UniProtKB/TrEMBL annotation:
EC category: lyase
Catalytic activity: 7,8-dihydroneopterin = 6-hydroxymethyl-7,8-dihydropterin + glycolaldehyde
Organism, scientific name: Flavobacterium limicola
Entry function: Catalyzes the conversion of 7,8-dihydroneopterin to 6-hydroxymethyl-7,8-dihydropterin.
GO cellular component: cytoplasm
Protein known as: 7,8-dihydroneopterin aldolase
Lineage of producing organism: Bacteria, Pseudomonadati, Bacteroidota, Flavobacteriia, Flavobacteriales
Signal peptide: none
SMART domains reported in the protein's UniProt record: FolB
Keyword Transmembrane: no
InterPro entries xrefs: Dihydroneopterin_aldolase (IPR006156), FolB_dom (IPR006157), GTP-CH-I_C/QueF (IPR043133)
SUPFAM superfamilies: Tetrahydrobiopterin biosynthesis enzymes-like (SSF55620)
Protein's GO biological process: folic acid biosynthetic process; tetrahydrofolate biosynthetic process
């Protein structure tokens, strides 16, 4: 088995409960970790034998472009879509961070993290 990590995928998205957040938008980062079997690809050196991280990145970017009130909802959509499109993945950890959130304080980021195993 093995782990593939995509770190600090940056997007400008429009999530949040406030009307202004849906109009103005904000900077986000997403960290993604997936568990899959990397033994075959480590020997074959062939993309068809592994999980393509270009596809993982595209899924994250596309799901981040769909507005949600809650970061938890966005993260769940990312998890669900990855499991649907990439059957070789057995576990996913996704962390979605809103940078400089409008919460009335000096906070660098708010992050939610979800972890799911294929059932």
């Amino acid at each position: 088995m093995g782990i593939i990590k995509l770190k600090n995928i940056r997007t400008y998205s429009y999530h949040g409960c406030l009307i202004e957040e849906g109009k103005i938008g904000s900077d986000y980062t997403v960290n993604l970790e997936v568990k899959t079997d990397l033994r075959k690809s480590s020997i074959s050196d062939d993309l068809k034998d592994t999980v393509d991280y270009v596809l993982l990145n595209r899924i994250v970017v596309e799901e981040m472009a769909i507005r949600s009130d809650l970061l938890e909802h966005v993260a769940h959509r990312i998890l669900t879509r990855i499991f649907e499109e990439i059957p070789e993945i057995s576990r996913i950890i996704v962390a979605v961070s809103k940078l400089n959130p409008p919460i009335g304080g000096d906070v660098e980021a708010v992050t939610i993290e979800l972890e799911e195993y294929r059932s």
